[in-house]
Amino acid sequence: MTSTLASAKGNTPEPAGPRGLPLLGNLPALARDPLGFFCHLRDTYGDWVPWAMGPKPCLFVSRPEDVNELLGGVETTFSPSELGWAFRHVLGDGVVTSTGDDWRRKRALVQPSVRPRQVRSYATTMVECADAAASRWQDGQRVDVQQEMTALTQRVAVRTLFGVETAGREETIARAMAVAQQEIGAELRGATIFLPPWVPTPGRRRLRSAVAELDAEIARIIAEHHAAEAAGEERDDLLSRLLAARDEAGAPLSDRELRDESITLYIGGHETTSTTLTWAWHLLAGSPEARARLDAELTEVLDGGRLPGFDDYARLPFTQAIVKESLRLYPPIWLITAVARAGATLGGRPVPEGTTVWSSQWSVHRDPRLFPEPDVFRPERWDPDAPTPVPDHAWFPFGGGPRTCLGTRFALVEAALVLATLAQRWRVETDPGEVKPFTGLTLQPARPIGATLRALPQPRRAPETPETSRAPEQA
């Protein structure tokens, strides 16, 4: 691999990459510790590292400018790479996994449903669900933080996406997605990613069963929406917007396409947000200074203890900074891959056709050259007047370029509003100790994060006024 890259560039030698095993290449090292593997490549070999995943030639890049060019070049000089049978089996042929004209058509159909004006309409649901959760908590109660945040964001996702709220449906979808999380991560870390789809491994059997259950539940919901549409009933959920969408030829999304896009939006709007909030509470518990500054901002902005609204999102810059810093340290989407087409380059350097180019948000976000004290939780690094501004293209938890995550705005607004709603009433004291991440579909805590809930003194909640409840027409 190294000699191939060197000859493609001419007389300039490429830096050496790690030595691999016959047939397996560097797969064993990747499987043992994916996050550590990519940081090792960065620290040992630099920002441009050839390596091998089994028989496949690979290139690892970590310079932000190269990553930005890679993200911007997908669909032109690079093609989205396959992330294994498990990933495809869960997401289907949705906007994340489709390519070319099919991807362009689906993106045009899905994107209007998650534009800022539409996200505004879902803000009330986000806050209502968070307020209901806060009202159920009790002073001194012991909780599993991830379970609490998962249940909350599942409720938001089911209500905003499907327009329904039943405990049974939430549990069915959550159970299936938990299996998907586990099996996608296992395939990415192991040799099964090279096996043909028809090989019946135990993990694949578990995943097939879970996806069948998930598909049956979503099919029932889609059928209910079709019936409501036929009866002239108007609904304002995301699925109804997808049902009404038409492409340039006037064709709607098929039921299978509706299923695939629903799963994609569910993961984007729930998985990433619950994970981000889980890590945020753990990080806040270890930073009294950050928690004090958050309390001061909430007291000032949400005067009288009122619930936040969509317009408050822009008025809560430190709350946003906590979310951004949590996403920097623990990016839910931790890996980006693409395959070089003929003539592909990065930073002016040729990349041989067929090479899989890898980058990791984890390794870039924790690069000491880009972020001073990279392993330290410092929300103030996001202040507009911070002495060391965050470098351009160095933070990309939702990807970038034309294939950036469509649910980015939804996830950022939800995380900030939910955090604000809960934090003005509760202090979440997580148990001390290191919590390592698990590399699945998203970057989850490898063990439960236990916490004790402490109620905060509450002022009399101010009634809503037109200024606090009405949302002006702006993004």
TrEMBL record:
Signal peptide: none annotated. InterPro entries: Cyt_P450 (IPR001128), Cyt_P450_CS (IPR017972), Cyt_P450_E_grp-I (IPR002401), Cyt_P450_sf (IPR036396). Heme binds at C405. Residues 1-10 have a biased composition (Polar residues). Pfam families: p450. Residues 1-20, 453-475 are annotated as: Disordered. One of its GO terms (molecular function) is oxidoreductase activity, acting on paired donors, with incorporation or reduction of molecular oxygen. This is Cytochrome P450. It comes from Streptacidiphilus jiangxiensis.
